[in-house]
Amino acid sequence: MSSPIxxxxxxxxxxxxxxxxxxxxxxxxxVHGAPGTTRxxxxxxxxxxxxxxxxxxxxxxxxxxxxxxxxxxxxxxxxREADVIVFVTDIRDxxxxxxxxVADRLRRINKPVLLVGNKGDSPRDRSHTSxxxxxxxxxxTIVSAIRGIGxxxxxxxxxxxxxxxxxxxxxxxDTEISxxxxxxxxxxxxSLLNxxxxxxxxxxxxxPGTTRxAxxxxxxxxxxxxRLIDTAGIRRxxxxxxxxxxxxxxxxxxxxxxxxxAIVMLDAQEAVTAQDTHVAGYVHEAAKGCVxxxxxxxxxxxxxxxxxxxxxxxxxGLHFLDYAPIIFLSAKTGLHVNxxxxxxxxxxxxxxxxxxxxTVNEFVQKVAxxxxxxxxxxxxxILYATQASVRPPTFVFFVNEPELLHFAYRxxxxxxxxxxxxxxxxxxxxxxxxRGD
Length: 437
What we know:
Elements: E1 5-9, H1 16-25, E2 43-48, E3 51-57, H2 67-81, E4 84-90, H3 97-107, E5 113-118, H4 123-126, E6 141-142, H5 151-161, E7 177-182, H6 189-200, E8 203-208, E9 215-221, E10 224-230, H7 241-258, E11 261-267, H8 274-285, E12 289-295, H9 306-317, E13 326-328, H10 337-351, H11 357-370, E14 373-375, E15 378-380, E16 382-389, E17 394-399, H12 407-421, E18 429-434
C-alpha cells in the first residue's frame, strides 16, 4: 500500500528542515529505518494517530539565485506529487512577496494545504498570527519547530487531511509481483521498460497508477504475473537542482511504497551520486526487495578488470545494499535484461521464505553464544526468537532488556541470518521486545 506523501514547502530560512527533523525525530513519532544508511536525508516515515505517512523536506534552495522562481517551481512539483502540503512561513517576518505568490498558487489547487507559522516561540511572536491571514489560506497552525511547541497539533491536522486508507479489497492480487523501476533521470528507466515489454510480448493490460503520469503495466514472465511501476516521468534536473532533485526522489519513494521489489537503475558511466543514494536508501529502509541494474554497460570501454572495479566502487557507494544482486546490462541493446527479471523472481521467492521457529531459535542461541553482547555492564539475553511474517521477512526477538541493543549487534544478527538462510535481495526486519510484551 502506498504511503501518503506530506510535502513541506516554503522559502529559505523559515525552518522547514527544523520542522522536518522535529516531525520525524520527536519521541512521539516513530521513524522507520536503521541509522547509518544515508546522509542529508530528504524524507522520513512518521506514525501518528494510527496512520503512517512519508514527510518530504524541500530544504536546500539557494536563496541567492532566482528565489521566486525556485520556490514557486518547488511548490508546483509539490502540488503534482504530494497528498498534503505543509506551507511554512516565518511568523516573525510576516508574509513577504514570495509567500504571497506561493499562497496564490496553493489557493487554486484541489489538495489539502496546511498553513504553518513557525518560530512562534513566545507570546510576543505569536501576537503576529493575524498577519498570516493576509495569505488567504485556512487558519494557520502556530509552532516552534526548534522547541517542539505546537507540533502535536500540527500532526493532528495532517492526519485529518490524509486520504482515506484503501479497502483491503482494493489491494493487489497476492500472487502478483509489483516491481518499481527507479533511478535518477537519464539512467535508462524507459529503455528498460520498453525492452522488457518487447521481450515478454504478453501485455495483459495497462491502467493508470497512483501518480499522475506513471503507468502500471501488467505482464507475464516465466509463468509469473508481474506489474511494472514506471517512474520514467521524473523530470530532468534543471537550473533549480535542489527542488527538482527532491521531487525526483519523492516520486521514486511513492513508487517504492507501492512495490514489493525495486529495480534501482544506475549509469555505468557515472559514479554513485547523492540522488542514487537517497533512492537506494529508501528501498533499504522500507525493507523492500532490490535488484541493482548497472545500465549502459555497452558504453564502457572493454577492460578485463572493469567489472571487478565497478563492482567494488558500487558496493562501496551503496554499502547498505550489500545483499542486493547487481546486474551489468544494456537496456538499449537488451544485454542481460532477462537476467534482471530472473533476479526479480528470485528476490520475490526470498521475500516469501519462512523459517520454522525451532530452526530460528536453535540458530539464534548458537550465534548469541558465539558472540555475546553486553552494554553498561549488562548482558543482552535473547530468550526466544521467531519469524513473525514475510514480505519482508520479519523476525521477533524476545530479550531481557531491549534498550541494551546496539545497532552494531543488530547488524551482526542480520548478517548471520543472511549467511545461514539466504534472503538474497530482500530487506529483512528485526524487532526486539521485552519478554511479556
